[in-house]
Amino acid sequence: MIRLTPLIRAGLALGLLSALLAPPPAPAQTQTPRVREWRRANEHALLREYVDFLALPNVARNPDDIRRNAAHLMEMMRRRGLGPRLLEAQGAPPAVYGEWNVPGATRTLVLYAHYDGQPSDSAAWHGSHPWRPVFRTARLDRGGQIVPLPAAGQPIDPEWRLYARSASDDKAGVMAILSAVDALKAAGLTPTSNLKFFFEGEEEAGSPHLDAILRGHAQLLRADAWIVADGPVHQDGRKQVVFGVRGDVNVDVTVYGPARPLHSGHYGNWAPNPALLLARLLSSMKDEHGRVSIAGWYDDVEPLGPAERQAIRELPMNDPQLMAELGIALPEITGPSLAELITLPSLNINGFESGGIAAGARNVIPTEASAVLDLRLVRGNDHRRQAQRLMEHIRRQGYHVIGHEPTVEERGRHPRLARVRVRPGGYNAERTPMDLPVSQGVLRAVRSTTPEPVYAVPTLGGSLPLSIISEALGTRTVTVPVVNHDNNQHAEDENLRLQNLWDAIETMAAVMMMEPS
Known about the structure:
Shape: globular
Helix content: 25-40%
């Protein structure tokens, strides 16, 4: 089992590692002021275009909505001269592809974002709707009021928030990339690389068809590296470049009680309650210190290298401020920092359902209880093996595990019965070495856009299908997060701070103009 102790200090080659990770002098790039000037002159038109894009429902599992988004995105790219086309595979939502070829360029980059989004319960939103974008003067929980987009020529406060599903995750990445193209073309600047654009349409569904799309268009998608515009900047608001992501797989677990709901007075103490059974099963998966107690959970973890450990040590320690902001009195696992803990695999309960609560509460023993589990993986874990470990743990708790809806006869034969379904689309973690020329090139490019520190981060806590990309195409990936950390992604009231969009445009333009390796 892996020990959750503070990171071991690397005693060897610290001078070399410090030199590698310390901010180098910014290259003599001159595009940032020109990109900023273009953005300031075009903020109103840019936001009107973005609001139209955000108004399209884009739940990953709704094919008709995804097709409408893809058609809209094709037109956005066509206006920019990027020659868009759809890349498809059997049964897959389309990826939208475009390119900007540069005569004489010796390097090719693919810029990735995704245009699909998470499901959303519109009733859970406060004062707005997931696909009716609104501007607020500040964060909603800090009194932000809905305001209209000012008329052309009137100032727009960069601290305003734009509330809509996918405002941050990840249509912001799409918009930042396309706006950077606009800005460079308007300034008469030519990228230093051939650029290809790949916008995925099912990332939030686990990318189950991405491998087929990539392998079916492998020649077209050949590149030296993929640059991924997704995820939040650091919690202190500064930019970061991230060299890895966790893997992910989701698992549905359902346990069963009586074949029909029973009166809790007539049958309480006699009929087993599936809600209580599931609660006990779930609690068996973690110990009192927050560690996952499933056998073998940490066995495959690939240790961080010296450069990665050094990078984590150099990150600011803002856990106390984050705990105050989120109202957390004590972390689930105490001792290691958040930056350390996201380098370990985790197990999360996305949701738990049984019976009814609030106005829907009834005095009954329910027939079943269900939970959705989110298994986050790090380098060394295999998503299939991790899901299998979970199923073996459930069996060790005395459950007969099946993969289908049970018959009444099966329910009567097994005192503890669990249906376990591994959702399609799981993938492994990915991590790119931080000292590669492309890694350092991206880091220098992002650092050239700001006088503030830019952090080099080994691994993002979230997940992206980067292992699918690297395995299918044999390429490297580097992630450049762009949105505010308090964006409520995947939840109600998702939002984007406008200054983060402005900064993202400059960042993407700098990557497009980064010096050749």
